[in-house]
């Protein structure tokens, strides 16, 4: 859910440094020029890496984007922990809104690129899967606090809470609404309390 | 929300017939080849219309797509009227799911094209605005039946009900889930009954 950021420099030698430089260059080029302006040569030049290395290692622009997206999961991001379900979801939605409206529009450009490259699309799916999985603890904590009915389906709740953000910001492209993160969070929390995300309880008597 | 379909032939002379032929050709080309395979020349050939006419009237591929999307509003589509809010929303979501997963994938291709052409993106926005406006009667009828608290914000309710469909089908690209239309409808209906879409919105902790 949080924006892909340039991977942190890690100790790890020349290969890791090259990868980090190339990722930084991809994000910078994408932010400045969008998918249509993203070329292997521009990335190589900006990264200060041999063209041959970039072609050999990443193949094409789709391969570059997929690697950037996969690297975005390689961080220690955790969802907010505010002490209430609605506030956790609102803080999460605020992160999404901030990322989607950031300048340069890197996250928006990555999502747009996923409509151009099948490889990038699959990597974007993996990144969302990673983020939603990490967010399941928000629902687990709310259940432990007694805020939720038993057997609440965490994934469905999280999708319901965040989907209006993506719908407004990516597809409907509506004007900025600073209340949107809170509204969507509150809607999902109210629906959850009303049992909207109940899973059929286990049938085995467990 | 329903898929753009080839506009019905109307009496209206040669200009209207040409437009209808060109729209049909755009949808067919888009369904077969996607945005990347959509060219002015292929559309002209398929429509049996002079290339010069197509260029003069629509300018470029973005202009063609925008006109197709604008024409999609020129129909008599109405939202379902089943007698209950949840069922209306579920039927609406079913229409969205059917349209988004149809073969050839015309609606999906139009949405993808909106990331390529600013003109198509604005037309897609107008189409959604038209559809959501037409759907507001679903909420008005539910209010008259006493299913909703007074002063329910119809647009926010409709976005909440439909956003999970678009999020799953357009962005997350998750496998087909036949329960999704009903789940998203029930979630929105439960949230609405709990006052999630009250105008003015409830303040947090109220």
UniProtKB/TrEMBL annotation, chains A, B:
InterPro entries: Homeodomain-like_sf, HTH-type_TetR-like_transc_reg, HTH_TetR, Tet_transcr_reg_TetR-rel_C_sf, TetR_C. Keywords: DNA-binding, Transcription, Transcription regulation. Residues 39-58 bind DNA. The keyword Metal-binding does not apply. Pfam families: TetR_C_11, TetR_N. It comes from the Bacteria. Residues 16-76 form the HTH tetR-type domain. The keyword Cell cycle does not apply. PANTHER family: HTH-TYPE TRANSCRIPTIONAL REGULATOR RUTR (PTHR30055), TETR-FAMILY TRANSCRIPTIONAL REGULATOR (PTHR30055:SF148). This is TetR/AcrR family transcriptional regulator.
């Amino acid at each position: 859910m949080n924006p892909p950021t340039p991977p942190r420099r890690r100790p790890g030698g020349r290969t890791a440094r090259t990868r980090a430089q190339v990722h930084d260059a991809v994000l910078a080029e994408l932010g400045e020029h969008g998918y249509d302006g993203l070329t292997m040569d521009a990335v190589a030049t900006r990264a200060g890496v041999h063209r041959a290395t970039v072609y050999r290692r990443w193949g094409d622009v789709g391969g570059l984007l997929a690697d950037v997206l996969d690297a975005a999961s390689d961080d220690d991001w955790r969802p907010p922990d505010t002490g209430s379900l609605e506030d956790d979801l609102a803080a999460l939605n605020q992160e999404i809104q901030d990322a989607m409206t950031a300048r340069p529009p890197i996250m928006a450009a990555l999502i747009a690129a996923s409509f151009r490259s099948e490889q990038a699309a699959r990597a974007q799916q993996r990144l969302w899967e990673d983020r939603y999985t990490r967010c399941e603890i928000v629902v687990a904590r709310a259940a432990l606090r007694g805020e939720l009915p038993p057997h609440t389906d965490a994934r469905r709740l999280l999708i319901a809470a965040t989907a209006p953000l993506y719908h407004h910001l990516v597809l409907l492209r509506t004007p900025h609404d600073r209340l949107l993160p809170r509204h969507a969070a509150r809607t999902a929390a109210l629906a959850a309390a009303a049992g909207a995300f109940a899973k059929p309880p286990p049938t085995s008597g467990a």
